[in-house]
Amino acid sequence: MDYMDGFYGQNEENRENPVMTEDSETGASSNREELNRKLRQTFDGKIVRKDLTKHIKEGANVPIYVLEYLLGQYCNSDDEAIIERGVNTVKSILANNYVRPDEAQKVLSVLRKKGSHTVIDLITVELNMKLDMYEATFSNLGLTRIPISEDYPEQYDRLLCGGIWCIVQLEYGGDGSDDFGIVGIDGGELRSKKSKQKDISPVSITKLTPIQMPNVDMNQLKEGRKAFTKNEWIDVLLRSTGMEPEELSYREKWLLLTRMLPLVENNFNLCELGPRSTGKSHLYKEISPNSILVSGGQTTVANLFYNMGRRTMGLVGLWDVVAFDEVAGINFKDKDGIQIMKDYMASGSFARGKEEKAASASMVFVGNINQSVDVLLKTSSLFDPFPPEMGTDTAFLDRMHCYNPGWEIPKFRPEHFTNDYGFITDFLAGFIRELRKEQFGDAIDKYFRLGKNLNQRDTIAVRRMTDGYLKLLYPDGNFGKEEVAEVLEISLEMRRRVKEQLKKLGGMEFYDVNFSYIDMEDMAEHYVSVPEQGGGKLIPEGMCNPGQVYTISHGKSDMIGVFRLESQMLPGNGKFDRTGLGTDRECKEAVDTAFNFLKANGNRISGSLAAMNKDFIINYQDLQGIGMTHKLALPTLIALCSIALGRPVQSSMAVIGDFSIGGTIMKADNLASTLQVCLDSGAKKVLLPQTSAVDLGTVPAELMSSFSLVFYQSAEDAVFKALGVE
User: Quick one: how far is CA 474 from the chain centroid?
Assistant: First the structure.
């Protein structure tokens, strides 16, 4: 049973042939109408037509979640006349009451002149314990310590937890009494429990009405979810973020849902790298009021984690998600920044000074890939756009729970944005935030067991992703075996993508990448792969040209990589030129060792080798950008003999090992990891020094069985076996 047949295949027909018939258009239209009917019936007052948001947003610099709340109140109808009146009402409210920060003094002047005025602003409330009263702060208007009735924070608790946008009626002036002009919800005046202070503001609040969702009824959400199928619910979630699901394949819908996992899971680390214009940061910047996008990547430990001077928490303590835009530019001004981030990403806590602090914010890393994925997989890793101190640090990258393949998401065009109904953004963000408190991760254990290749970090990552997907798609907890299998497979794929890159960077330490799960019913084991791993290889199949050699060894950066030698032979008098080595002295010495060995021992290899009557040119290429290797004597000798004799090296062969100027064969370093790179590069045969046979015990049997191993005992023997001469 393959639960994911539909995951990769569903809707592909539509993608390849976007021309829809009249019948299919009618069917799609009726499906949309049915879905809209269900939404209006089940979530009345919490949905909005997204095209209205787009039109007004273009002319008003107000958060989307505020705008959509107003539209949901005034435009919740199918009647175009009612919608038009509602839109005009919303525009009028925004024009007359929204406070722009640069017009704060003008608004205060109007308030003073008229005696009362209504404003739209972000209101935060704090308890002043000295005066035993609540005080409000206006974000854009710049007012602080404005007395407010205790009824409001009791009824709308979000006022105390970061604040909410409100329509507020203000009055200006005081009569010397000690009631501060505070009016309760019932309209009665309230008196302070303390005497009036001299510095009290003449501004008072007479009425406050939230224009965000003041609270979310989770029971209503769970009951409402039962009216929708899985595919309908996916479409509702995507339309709520502004996307049109009918323009996306089934696979693409899941990839967009994956972006929502950090919002629904605590301490979840996600990475998404891909082409530009795929909306990687849109969700975290525009859709959720609970996430913050750190643009440019410049930050400090005090800003991100904890300010020891002020003794205040940084961004991870204030937001549900901290997203870094343009990962290539991430830069900590503090030397210990990345170490503290690694600690936090692993455990959700970090030490500053004498204390250990905990927070629940998820970390998101988004950025651009400048090359094709095939090129990146051949020449480096999918984490290549990260700065070097992160992109090559396997301990940091191992903490990534999920790698979302951004290159599979299409570049967004106008038709990708919906004009249909979706949840008000604030309602969506509100219930997603409430879902962070629930746990469905143990649903795996009821039906499946994870394979033996998953270590503890892999297991935690897969469980968190499974938990997140299930909470998003089935908030009512109503799911069965097939639903769990579907989310488990994509969770395993997202984590395996991280592990595959770690294997490239860290070698045998991360060898276990064959992720699987076992069905507890029939004990069948299902393996999960990543789609992009089936691409082309660095070492091509079939015979190469004479003089072309592939060798695998440690580069200048001490990483193991693939190097290619290409040769030419011209009539001449024994000159030898090399290109691609730059000014590296050790590389040049290794190459000269090979040429001198050939001049001294050419007759022992072949009587027809008249090296002195030819000129040779060899170009050396570092295919993975890790710095040129110094172990070039043996591959250079094989390349020279191959071009001189006109015989190509055996097909798909990689050369490992080296020799000294005296002809002594040197053992290959780190054999297991070197062979793993051979496999990843496409080698089918490996030329190995006999001295490395003692290290074969360190190589997993599965890896060793992937090649035909050819051993050599001397430099001449290596030439014979590389060229297939018995």
Answer: 23
Per the CB < 8 A criterion, the answer to whether 491 and 469 are in contact is: yes
The enclosing H or E element of 313 equals strand 312-313
Cα separation of 56 and 87, whole Å? 8
Q: Report the C-alpha gap between 227 and 240 in whole angstroms.
A: 17
Question: What single DSSP character describes residue 287?
Answer: I
Angle between the N-to-C axes of helices 80-97 and 50-57, in degrees from 0 to 180, rounded to the nearest 10:
40
> Of 369, 382, 375, nearest to 411 (Cα)?
369
- How would you classify the pairing of strands 362-368 and 321-324? parallel
Q: DSSP assignment of 361-425, as one string?
A: -EEEEEEE--S-HHHHHHHS-TTTTS-HHHHT-HHHHTT--EEEEGGGSPPP-GGGB--SEEE-H
Going by DSSP bridges, is the β-strand pair 146-148/133-138 parallel, antiparallel, or unpaired? Answer: antiparallel
**Helix 64-74 vs helix 50-57: crossing angle, to nearest 10:** 120
The model's pLDDT over 501-513, given as tens digits with 9 standing for 90+, comes to: 888 787 767 878 8
Distance CA 416, CA 433 (A): 26
Beta bridge partners of 552: 562
Q: What average pLDDT does the structure give for the chain?
A: 84
Q: How far apart are CA 667 and CA 657, in angstroms?
A: 6
Instruction: Please provide residue 533's backbone torsions phi and psi, each rounded to the nearest 5 degrees.
Output: -70, -10
Query: Over the stretch 615-674, which tens digit does the pLDDT of each residue have?
Result: 899 999 988 778 899 999 999 999 999 998 889 999 999 999 999 888 899 988 889 888
How many C-beta atoms lie closer than 10 Å to residue 427's C-beta? 25
The Cα 50–Cα 414 span in angstroms is 13
**pTM beyond cutoff 0.90:** no
- C-alpha to C-alpha distances, 592 to 585, 604, 658, nearest whole angstrom: 11, 19, 13
